[in-house]
Specification:
It is a single chain. By secondary structure, the protein is mainly α. The protein has one domain. It is built from ten helices and no strands. About 2% of the residues have low confidence.
Length: 274
């Protein structure tokens, strides 16, 4: 259990590296709007279609996963309508907060929690598998966290608050890892449904908030602009990271299972000698 707590915390800290580097430099809001926002859109879309949905369909009924994704989109739609109504009926100080910020944080927190489930499930297989999985998860989260940091900063959130929000969100991975490890198996959690919900959350944020903001600031006289290229770069970078992470995890699982099977074979051979 201590190893699970330690490595899930370590995975969360590693995933924040890119965001911390972003905070360490004096970057103007205009830069964030121009580059970090479209990168975040690409990162979220890649996470949804190359990671969350395929993983969910692999471990659960595809119809259940897709239905959960639809429910996630609808829940976020209703939540955003409520937040807009809430801010409209409160004082001017409240109006400075973009309702989309809350949706971004919730989506990222759910995603981090699912990472914690993956880490704990890997440690249930073996310690080496758990360590490799932690590194892989952190590696593919780094580019997405850069996008999330940049996106929150572009919404006018202070750097100290952005760091606090993301640090607390990262702790969701540890909480989920502890719960999963205590249960003894990720089979006792509706992983496919949770992955579908997370995919719906992130897809809604990407397409209802980020992409429209990119179009709104685009120069209509130009077909190909830097924001489009950066969005594609976000997809490619996160997609490559996800693919590399899955390969390492798959190889680690195969190695662990191979070692276990070899051990059982040796035991049976010893028994037959006797």
């Amino acid at each position: 259990m201590l190893l699970v707590i330690l490595f899930s915390l370590l995975g969360g800290l590693l995933s924040l590296i890119g965001g911390l580097l972003l905070l360490s430099k004096r970057i103007k809001p205009a830069f964030l709007v121009k580059y970090a926002t479209p990168f975040a859109a690409g990162a979220l879309l890649a996470a949804v279609f190359l990671d969350l949905l395929p993983e969910g369909i692999e471990v659960s009924n595809p119809n259940e996963v897709l239905l959960a994704a639809l429910i996630g989109i609808l829940l976020f739609f209703v939540a955003e309508r409520f937040l807009h109504w809430f801010h409209h009926h409160h004082n001017d100080e409240e109006k400075h907060t973009d309702p989309a910020v809350g949706l971004i944080v919730v989506g990222d927190t759910v995603h981090n929690a699912l990472d914690g489930v993956a880490i704990a499930a890997a440690f249930l297989v073996s310690v080496p598998t758990g360590i490799v999985t932690t590194i892989a998860v952190a590696a593919h989260e780094i580019p997405q966290e850069i996008g999330d940091f940049g996106l929150l900063l572009s919404k006018g959130i202070k750097k100290s608050k952005v760091l606090l929000i993301n640090a607390l969100s990262a702790l969701a991975a540890t909480a989920a890892a502890v719960i999963t490890y205590s249960l003894g198996s990720d089979d006792k959690l509706p992983i496919g449904i949770l992955l579908g919900l997370s995919a719906g959350f992130l897809l809604y944020v990407a397409l209802s908030d980020i992409v429209p903001s990119i179009h709104a600031k685009a120069d209509a006289s130009k077909l190909l602009q830097i924001q489009t290229i950066v969005l594609l770069v976000g997809v490619i970078v996160v997609g490559f990271s996800i693919n590399a992470a899955h390969q390492y995890i798959h190889e680690s699982h195969e190695h662990s299972h191979g070692t276990t099977e070899a051990g059982h074979h040796d035991e049976h051979a010893d028994e037959s000698d006797h």
